[in-house]
């Protein structure tokens, strides 16, 4: 509620936090902020990034007037970073699941265990982003990347949080990996998954898995399961030393210590060419031998 937001705001002052729009308490002003209700050059003076702002109802993420939903229910990423600077951090080893809700904003501060963002209970498609707030004043994601269904409630991640799993909804989702070993499970719908490392388990819809940060990819396993799924790699096919279709239906792409294993995928697309994988899988099984595409 708005009352809870005010309570956290004033408690923040008691704990030593200042506004992001003035220099009270010898604090710095967020990049480009001109006044108390200006979001700044990179739109970071916003209640989904700090409870110490005045930008809440007027935010594009804010609730309508005179309602008791759509506000924050935790400290947000800038607040958490400042409080950790002042008072230190602590870790835990508990495995937690955080559910996206469409009526409140939460910033996760969880530095241990195996943790998951889930949209399994959502009745519409969501965006899930497993990347942390980077606190870089020149970045639009300084205060965090947003996981949400409707921009009126969702989740951001503090800089030091460890979130390595995501579960999508039954609808059309967009899911972004971070650089850690993630386990991502999409549900139904036509999902778009931006993968880096770990395991991708596609759902029942026709999904597209993008590998855009190929230089950061070390080991990635993709299972398309059902549906007509496509993998798009932002590199030329010549980037890989070998592309092999195995008799078990897997396609393995290798370069030095880098490995991408793909199964149940219809199309494999590179910057320079597109490969219809199922044709090679049928040939491999017919000949009972691996097929080297490259």
Radius of gyration: 22 Å
Quaternary structure state of the chains depicted: single chain
% residues in beta strands: 25-35%
Gross morphology: elongated
Mean pLDDT: 94
The helix content, as a percent range, equals: 10-25%
Query: Helix/strand/pairing class, anyone?
Result: alpha/beta
Q: Kindly state the number of beta strands.
A: 20
Helix/strand order: HHEEEEEEEEEEEEEEEEEEEHE
- Count up the helices: 3
Going across the biggest sheet, name each strand in turn. 1-3-7-9-11-13-17-16-15-20
Low-confidence stretches: none
Tell me what the structure shows.
The protein contains 3 helices and 20 strands. The chain is of the alpha/beta class. Strands 1-3-7-9-11-13-17-16-15-20 form a 10-stranded mixed β-sheet. The chain is elongated, with a radius of gyration of 22 Å. The N and C termini lie far apart (59 Å). 40% of the residues are buried.
Short recap of the structure:
This protein has 3 helices and 20 strands. With 294 residues, it is of the alpha/beta class.
Observed structural traits:
294 residues, alpha/beta, ten-stranded mixed β-sheet, seven-stranded mixed β-sheet, elongated
Write the SSE topology.
Elements: H1 2-14, H2 77-87, E1 97-99, E2 105-108, E3 116-118, E4 127-129, E5 147-148, E6 154-157, E7 165-167, E8 174-176, E9 181-185, E10 192-194, E11 197-201, E12 208-211, E13 219-223, E14 230-233, E15 242-245, E16 251-255, E17 258-263, E18 267-269, E19 274-276, H3 277-287, E20 291-292
Parallel strand pairs: 1-3, 2-6, 3-7, 4-8, 7-9, 8-10, 9-11, 10-12, 11-13, 12-14, 13-17, 14-18
Antiparallel strand pairs: 5-6, 15-16, 15-20, 16-17, 18-19
